[in-house]
Amino acid sequence: MTFLLTVYTLWQRELVRFYRVPSRWFGAVGTALLFWVFLGSGFGGADGRAFFFPGTIVMSMMFSCLFATASIIEDRQAGFLQSVMVAPVSRAAIVMGKILGGATLATLQGLLILVFAGSVGATFEFSAALGLVASLFLISFVVTAMGFWLAWTIDSVPGFHAIMNMVLLTLWMASGAIFTVSSTSWLRTFMTINPFTYGVAGVRRGLFPSAAMDQVPGLSTSLWVLLGFAVFFYLLSSLVVEKTRERK
Amino acid sequence: MAPLLEVQNLSYQYGSRQALKSLTFSVEKGEIFGFLGPNGGGKTTTFKILSTLFSTQPGQVKLFGMDLALDRIAIRRRMGIVFQLPALDKKLKVSENLRHQGHLYGLHGAELDRHIARDLERLNLKDRAKDKVESLSGGLQRRVELAKALLNDPELMILDEPSTGLDPAARKDFWNHLEKLRQAQGMTVLVTTHYLEEADRCDRLLILDKGEKVALGKPEELKAQIGGEVLRLRAKDPMALAAQLQEKLKVRTQLVGDLIQIEQPKAYQLIAPLQEGFGDQILSLTLGLPTLEDVFIHKTGRRFTEDKE
């Protein structure tokens, strides 16, 4: 009961905070949309935009997760999280509430961009659409949990941004967002173990259920792999919070 | 009855720096117990251990008869904590901050509403409940912190330099509220401070310096240890004058920064001989009752403010 109440209250706080700072929202969606229009048009008009659409959604969500987790660092040293850390609640509940909050926001943002799905020739099919939403949520969860873990480990905001940019952009570039298959074997291996590959694949499959995509992982495979990554990073974050108590 | 808090041989080390050295003290139920000391004295480390943020290293801490190292969650349930740095979400309203806090302590629904209404009332915050925290003055924000820490009816309230950054009026207001609550609730209060006037309002004080206990007792008792009054001289050449005074007037002097300090009963009797014999070397002379800072100087030979980090 306390576990759920804690998760709920921290989740709700994330949503309200986001709602109160519209510039955050505007920035994340705006960046992704501009990126999509410019890159997609540059690479080949309407076809290009359709190809880049899934990657664009994932990138937009990635920024959202980044902002949601960067705040942890300051919040913990000089903010609300200080009192959360001395409350009689489990660390696992705190981590879950915070990650769920960030993941929910990112998912909502991803869904918002889906307004444009019709313009890129996406087709609606019920089970694929469900899979699409699940993919959006799971990849958001994975990125937020990863961000949580890094934010807790790194205690400087600029340091966190530097590392997260490096990690996220690398993972995104090798996710099938720009190219679906590579002829270099180490890159192929990297793509196989990259959670973003499954996030982008899930979104691609969900948007274009009837398109032929031999090189892209299937929808249910993607969802299972994402779930695995989500559990892994959640446990990792919980462990790090439990272990690193001391900080001057 | 066993004390509410018992600390035995508590030490704490950050890497190679010893922040606390074998601290032993206890606090009775209902006391306002202060930790006074300069920055780097060990106050904040003590706060972090007692508030369960840091784990205990060598030494034992018993709170409510439970071991702090083992019964963390049960202990947390019975404490309220006010941090030195703001722990409010500034983008949220006052009432929203309190609501989240209540949820973390297992309060919800009508019961939580009652607690929130009660605390807003007690701290005169009722008409600000719907305001965002960022729109409140520093003094009011501190009061919200207090309301937040009170929400779970704590038996023990721990505050870390709670009035840092407040103007004297707001600081006084904060303490008036704290004392009122202590009386109404029979709450025990632990507070760290480097303000002497705050320390004076505590029932008992532990003076810390470089992680060690310098003195422990009631403020009046500590000041009485000095005996008599304190004379402070500002001189052109303090070292030379101090030596001369010791030789010719047979008084014990202490050099504190660039001041010469003489503590003794009836110190005022020295004023005339000082003036007559050494008037040309003395720039200024003040006579006062001992303060807690004098206690600190007496024990450490240093001023309070010298070794700011």
Task: Please describe what this structure looks like.
The complex is a heterodimer of chains A (248) and B (309). Chain A has helices at residues 2-20, 22-42, 45-78, 81-85, 91-113, 126-153, 157-173, 185-193, 195-207, 219-243. Chain A has one domain (2-243). Chain A is globular and about 55 Å long. Chain A contains ten helices and no strands. Chain B is elongated and about 75 Å long. A six-stranded mixed β-sheet of chain B has the order 6-7-8-3-9-10, sandwiched between helices. Chain B contains eleven helices and 14 strands. Chain B has helices at 43-50, 72-77, 94-104, 109-122, 138-150, 168-185, 196-199, 219-226, 238-248, 271-278, 292-300; strands at 5-14, 17-27, 32-36, 60-63, 66-67, 79-82, 156-160, 188-193, 204-209, 212-217, 229-235, 253-256, 259-264, 282-288. Chain B is an alpha/beta fold and 309 residues long. The model of chain B has no long low-confidence stretch (mean pLDDT 90). In chain B, a hairpin with a 2-residue loop joins β12 and β13. At the A-B interface, α1 and α4 of A face α2 and α3 of B.
